[in-house]
Automatic annotation (TrEMBL):
Location relative to the cell: Membrane
Entry keyword set: Glycosyltransferase, Membrane, Transferase, Transmembrane, Transmembrane helix
Signal peptide segment: none
Upper taxonomic lineage: Eukaryota, Metazoa, Chordata, Craniata, Vertebrata
Source species, domain of life: Eukaryota
Any one GO cellular component localisation term in the record: membrane
Molecular functions (GO terms): UDP-glycosyltransferase activity
Name used for this protein in its record: Uncharacterized protein
Record-stated family: Belongs to the UDP-glycosyltransferase family.
Tagged with keyword Transport: no
Stored Pfam families: UDPGT
Topology relative to the membrane: Single-pass membrane protein
Gene3D superfamilies xrefs: Glycogen Phosphorylase B
């Protein structure tokens, strides 16, 4: 399946040009891409290839061992060694939820070493990057961008417990913005709104349970106490992979852009004969 970038006037080249104050039509930037393995890589790869095709220098750093990360002629691929092999990835995919909990700490240690490898690579390479493109679901790239004081561009579907709204200080009223797993819509009765409010009150505790391990890794790496909210709040641009026509209405901040349809296959228009055949037969 071919993947395309829907928007011709992508906000990412504009964000890169604003970094140096030069027009986006005459300036090419240098982008560091820190991908997340798995299906998250599909959208990042589409953007990396499109920007590389337009003349920007795109460098994608990835571990030597991965599930779906691959090279392309439109971007520079740099691989770094990691202290684990393909056996660990196969084990993580095969295990159930209960068994995964026992490997969380060891996985976080590997993430810590991965961040250190990223930092050494970036400092040793002859690239003066203008921005970092990453998926904050696995905040390796976000932590690296924060440490290097580079503008971070996040591409995501959403973060657990509303961390995206918290980090951007975006209003998230419980009166009409449904919370995860409540099965509510934007039209709620009194009891549904009460449930929505109760869930929103519990969300900070859920966030703490989800992100404490990442915060511990980031604090040890940065050598000071830091929260994921502080790290993610420095994001320059948030690219959300959903369409406003398919979602419930919710407030958005100026740096939050909806790019729904990014991973859609390129359509093949029907010929006139095929179109008439469908009309007649149906």
């Amino acid at each position: 399946m071919h993947v395309r970038v829907v928007s011709v006037c992508s906000p990412l080249p504009l964000a890169l040009s604003e970094r140096t104050g030069t027009p986006a039509t005459t300036w090419t930037g240098r982008l560091l891409v820190v991908p997340m393995d798995g299906s998250h890589w599909t959208g990042l790869k589409a953007v990396a290839e499109e920007l590389g095709h337009r003349g920007h220098t795109v460098v994608v750093v990835m571990p030597e061992v991965s599930m779906r990360l691959d090279s392309s002629k439109h971007y520079i691929t740099k691989r770094f060694p990691v202290p684990y092999g393909p056996e660990l990835l196969e084990e993580l995919q095969a295990r159930n939820t209960e068994a995964l909990q026992s490997t969380t700490l060891s996985l976080m240690e590997r993430i810590s070493s991965r961040i250190s490898s990223f930092k050494k690579f970036v400092h040793y390479q002859q690239f003066n990057f203008d921005a970092v493109l990453t998926d904050p679901a696995m905040p390796t790239g976000a932590i690296l961008a924060y440490n290097l004081s580079l503008p971070a561009v996040y591409m995501l579907r959403g973060l657990p417990c509303g961390m995206d709204s918290i980090s951007t200080a975006c209003p998230d009223p419980s009166s009409y913005v449904p919370r995860f797993f409540t099965k509510n819509s934007d039209h709620m009765c009194f009891s549904e709104r009460v449930l929505n409010v109760l869930v929103s009150m519990v969300e900070p505790l859920i966030c703490k349970a989800i992100y404490w391990s990442f915060e511990d890794v980031a604090s040890r790496f940065l050598q000071r106490t830091v929260s994921m909210k502080e790290i993610l709040s420095t994001g320059a641009l948030w690219l959300f992979r959903y369409d406003f026509t398919m979602e419930f209405p919710r407030p958005l901040m100026p740096n939050m852009v909806l790019i729904g349809g990014l991973n859609c296959a390129i359509r093949s228009p029907l010929s006139l004969v095929s179109f008439l055949r469908i009309i007649i037969l149906t």
